[in-house]
Design a protein that fits this description.
The complex is a heterodimer of chains A (about 120) and B (about 290).
Chain A lengths: L1 H7 L5 E7 L5 E5 L6 H21 L5 E8 L2 E8 L2 E8 L4 H20 L1
Antiparallel strand pairs in A: 1-2, 1-5, 3-4, 4-5
Helix pairs in contact in A: 1-3
Chain B lengths: L1 H13 L3 H13 L3 H14 L5 H12 L3 H14 L4 H10 L3 H14 L4 H10 L45 H7 L7 H4 L4 E8 L4 E5 L5 H21 L7 E6 L2 E8 L3 E7 L5 H14 L4
Antiparallel strand pairs in B: 1-2, 1-5, 3-4, 4-5
Helix pairs in contact in B: 1-2, 2-3, 2-4, 3-4, 4-5, 5-6, 6-7, 7-8
The chains are: A alpha+beta (about 120), B alpha+beta (about 290).
Chain lengths: ~120, ~290
């Protein structure tokens, strides 16, 4: 899984990747130094809880993904089997392209987790 | 009462809360310690800025001392913080400088408290009618404003030709006040795939809303909270405050575009809609509303 995460960080525009369980625990990560992976995973856990609440309250069906942008970059949360991949992107990254290019790797992670 | 006051003072020092501060303010006022009561209200406002009750108590004290303009400002703040505060709306109706404004406050009460005797009777005195959606209005059996405040506006018969449109008891009061602002969302809501949109502040209070069929309150509240947790995760990632978020689900998506994390446009859309398509419209709505 570490290898797949490392490949994800080689997708153009992606600066880091973390595999997070549904309850906000780090399962694997490939982050640049200076970012606390556990703090990030815990914060992502809160986002996931809220996102699922929004989807349920507004009757939008199953939660599929979340992204949030800032002037410094973006944070993407993608569903992969029972877990979630968090991608940190650089400012100006094309988020649609990042999602397309990372999709096969995210699916490989999901398949690995299903084993 | 003195021992109760002392107990409350100690408790509020050790475990401060908005309800303890307001209880302390009420007791202090009853015991004649107006300085202590005002100090408790001011501390509550400072430490618990979302609490409306301290504003109401202080406004009542200001009315008693004849400081009407200060009371009016305090009540306006209380209603801004808690649009369904019965006490604040009653005081606002009493302090209103025109019957039309008083009627508006009384109608807002009847939306969340249908059939309230005092509000209904005062409304009848003023010649107003209950807002649509406020339900049955009880016939008051006794004079409602039994002890009119000295600052009460003299009743003047003003009849409304049509009641305010208030489809949902939950958000009706807010919506009636924000209806003209909804025009800022027209262009956004005309985009393909957009089901509806609203504009909310950082506390999840609705500023404007369009086409959300009573779901604007939940979208605004949860949208504001999602933005808050997104900001925490971005902080953990070493990034700045969020400009937007997109939440995708099987049967729809929620998009949010914010300005300085103060005012946010929240859009409910079909799953296939691309955020970039709507961002320009949403940012324009923020400009139209004066948020930029």
């Amino acid at each position: 899984m570490d290898e797949i995460l490392a490949q994800l960080t080689r997708v153009r525009g992606v600066g880091g990747a973390v595999l997070v369980s549904h309850d906000g625990l780090t399962m694997a990560s490939s982050l640049r130094s200076g970012i606390d992976e556990n703090a990030l995973a815990a914060a992502v856990g809160d986002v996931l809880g809220m996102a699922q609440r929004v989807a349920s309250s507004l009757e939008l069906g199953a939660f599929l993904g979340f992204s949030t942008t800032t002037d410094q970059g973006a944070l993407l949360i993608l569903v992969t089997g029972p877990a979630f991949v968090v991608l940190l992107t650089d400012a100006g990254a094309n988020l649609a392209l990042v999602q397309i290019e990372s999709k096969p790797l995210v699916e490989r992670l999901g398949a690995r987790l299903a084993l | 009462m003195e021992s109760e006051l002392e107990r409350l003072r100690k408790k509020v020092e050790n475990f401060p809360s908005a309800s303890l501060y307001t209880r302390l303010a009420e007791l202090s006022r009853q015991s004649g310690d107006l300085v202590g009561a005002e100090a408790a209200c001011r501390r509550c406002m400072r430490e618990f800025p979302r609490s409306a009750q301290s504003y109401v108590i202080l406004a009542e004290m200001k009315i008693a001392t004849g400081a009407k303009s200060e009371a009016v400002q305090l009540i306006a703040t209380a209603i801004e913080k808690e649009p369904r505060s019965y006490q604040a709306l009653r005081l606002a109706a009493d302090l209103a400088d025109s019957p039309t404004k008083a009627i508006k406050h009384l109608q807002a009460i009847l939306v969340f408290k249908p059939g309230d005797g005092p509000a209904s009777a005062r409304l009848q005195e003023l010649g107003g009618s209950p807002a649509a959606g406020s339900g049955r209005v009880a016939k008051p059996s006794a004079p409602v404003v039994s002890a009119p405040s000295p600052v009460l506006t003299p009743p003047v018969a003003v009849r409304r030709d049509s009641p305010l449109p208030m489809p949902s008891p939950v958000t009706a009061a807010i919506r009636s006040a924000t209806a003209p602002r909804a025009a800022a969302l027209d262009a956004l809501c005309q985009e393909a795939g957009v089901r509806g949109a609203c504009v909310a502040d950082a506390q999840g209070r609705i500023i404007a809303s369009k086409q959300l069929s009573g779901r604007d309150d939940i979208l605004a509240a949860l949208g504001a909270e999602t933005l808050r947790v997104a900001a925490t995760s971005l902080l953990a990632a070493g990034a700045g405050a969020p400009n937007s978020f997109s939440l995708l689900a099987a049967a729809g998506q929620v998009l949010a575009f914010t300005r300085d994390h103060r005012i946010t446009v929240l859009v409910l859309a079909d799953p296939g809609v691309r955020p970039a398509m709507l961002e320009l419209r949403a940012r324009q709505a923020l400009i139209d509303l004066g948020a930029v």
